[in-house]
Amino acid sequence: MKRFFKSLPERFDAAIAGSTGVLIVWLAVAVALSAVMFLGISLLFDFSIFGSSADEDVWSRMQGVIYHLFDLEDLYMRQSGAGIKLFTIAVTFVGMVLLNGMLITTISNIVSRRVADINEGRVRYRALADHYVIIGYSRTAICLIDDIFSRYDAHYRENDGRHSVRHLPKIVIMTGSDVAKVRSEIYSHTPLFVERRIFIYSGNIESMEHLERLNIHTAREVFVLGDVEQYGRDSKNLASLASLAVLRGAMARRKEGDVLRVNVQFDRMPSYSNIQMLAIPHEYLSYPGERCHNLYFRPFNFYENWARLLWSDYAMEGYAPLDFCPMVGARHVHLFIIGFNRMGLALLLESLRLCHYTNYDGTPETRTRITVVDRQMAELLPSFRARYPYIDEQIEDVQVEFVAADADDERVRAMLDEAARDENELLTVAVALHDPDTSLATALNLPEAVYRSESKVLVRQELQRGLGEVLDRDTARHRNVKVFGMLTAGVSGGLLDDERPIFINHNYEKMCRLDGFDAASTPYASDDERRKAHESWIALSESARWANRYQTDAFGGYKRALQHYRSTCGIATAQIPEPLYEALAEAEHRRWVAERTVAGWRAAREGEGRDNTFRVHDMIVPYAQLSDEERAKDRAVVGNVEHIERLFS
């Protein structure tokens, strides 16, 4: 009951901001309830409405109540003269106009102002608790909202197919953009029963006062997206962490170790790469004076998320991995990226981390090939080289070629035609152009050999509906063409979940023991063990956390190699043979070298040792040069992949 009364302002605002029909229903209900209430009082205390009839029946009393409610009782007074009746009518009419008219106008103004405040995002609800908070607005917010509510599908869908709103979480969105436009855009993509759980505030991400109104201290989870048109969006998103830490620390009564998860979007790839290298100051995550963190910072990038959704172990159903056929002999992956924008860069970096296979034997023919095409490559490439200077010299099993040309250039089309005809090349063409129409036109007009072969074509589209939906259903010429990059995906709880990396980090020393480690029997021995795992994870540097995350991305490739071996042998479960075990361990080391290289680490030169400050590592060497102890760590990774996958499946 207490929660009901606290939620009355929300219910009232939802009613007055609704349709005309809803307002009429509420008015009718209010009048009916008032009439019933006054009739009950009349019967309970034996009040005679006209003051003279002691034997009035219920209907007579109801008439009296109605006459009083509508100020009509004087019309029914038993005066004897026509003049008096006319005078009574005149007085009643003037009273209705002056008193009731002014009263209605005043109430109408109050309601109108309240509706305007709601529509413009100025209304706040102090009783909100256990809710999700989204700070800033971009189109990815729609995907985020859908993902949040999908987690509660079993609760809000009853057996008869109706929706039970009371089990749904509430979401508060604060934006500096036009609230009416934001509301219209969100409501156009969400069902009515979801709209009732979304509250949109107008506010500034840099204002402590505005952030305070979001009830951060009682929130379940926070997502910082920033507004699209905001200048310095990534920097402001990061700076908001400090404000949130202060607000939660000052207002929350927290248990020890209780942290609020704050997911922060970095829109630009350079900002995102930099945040993976930098140490976040303690005051950004803690209340001033406190030693422990009260926030858990989880950065993410929309474009990298989509790259992971395509090819990593978190891939969405329907997307073929880059190694879509068994990697045997001289067979190798060839990724062709058209468009070196933010999406194209994310695809390149993710493929550099993932494309490390057991068939690589040190020869150029077995290397993974990546070709990046863009008409402005001459202007874009120097910046890329400056940010990632060691890729060519340290990643031995991947060859990257940059081409300054359009996709319809004869030289580019000839390269595509040759790659599609080569039986040893597993070709994937990713058309990452920003303009959806140009991107689609390019993807549907590639050389004929691309469509005749088993090559995969990915075409970037902001929306899957329309042409994209039709394309996905084509089972003829374009059977291997799929759309990606939709704004309705790219942010999900699964991608942001860190349970597998947390487990790997917590059990790293055990998994590296030469006497073996049974991951299947050691998930989390107790709640205390889980708490320690999360505490040690939070204490890690951002760079170390990402090293663990990227390791789990590669699990899919190792599982496919094992499955191919077992299917070839005709045995469902078989001991991994030593040559395959060693080949997988070597591929894992090359993957680790590539991941560290992309993160800005370089190999130690003569006379140098490991230097975390300047990102110098003495283990960035070929696998053959590692000690037995270091090789055992790579063997431990691939040896426990299937066990860990079963734990979290």
Explain what this protein looks like in three dimensions.
There is one protein chain. It contains 29 helices and 14 strands. It is an alpha/beta fold and 649 residues long. Helix 3 crosses helix 4 (58-69) and helix 22 (499-506) packs across helix 25 (542-553). It is globular, with a radius of gyration of 33 Å. It has a 6-stranded parallel beta sheet with strand order 3-2-1-4-5-6, sandwiched between helices. The chain has 4 domains: 2-119, no CATH class; 132-300, Rossmann fold (3-Layer(aba) Sandwich); 306-484, 3-Layer(aba) Sandwich (Rossmann fold); 498-647, no CATH class. The two termini are 40 Å apart.
* CATH homologous superfamily designation of the largest domain: NAD(P)-binding Rossmann-like Domain
Q: Can you count the beta strands?
A: 14
CATH topology-level fold name of the largest domain: Rossmann fold
**Termini gap:** 40 Å
Estimate the mean pLDDT confidence.
82
As a percent range, the share of strand residues is 5-15%
Computed over alpha carbons, the radius of gyration is 33 Å
User: What's the main sheet like?
Assistant: 6 strands, parallel
CATH class of the largest domain: Alpha Beta
Strand order of the largest sheet: 3-2-1-4-5-6
User: What gross morphology would you assign?
Assistant: globular
How many distinct domains? 4
- By secondary-structure content and strand pairing, the structural class works out as alpha/beta
What's the CATH architecture of the largest domain?
A: 3-Layer(aba) Sandwich
- Tally the helices: what do you get? 29
Quaternary organisation: single chain
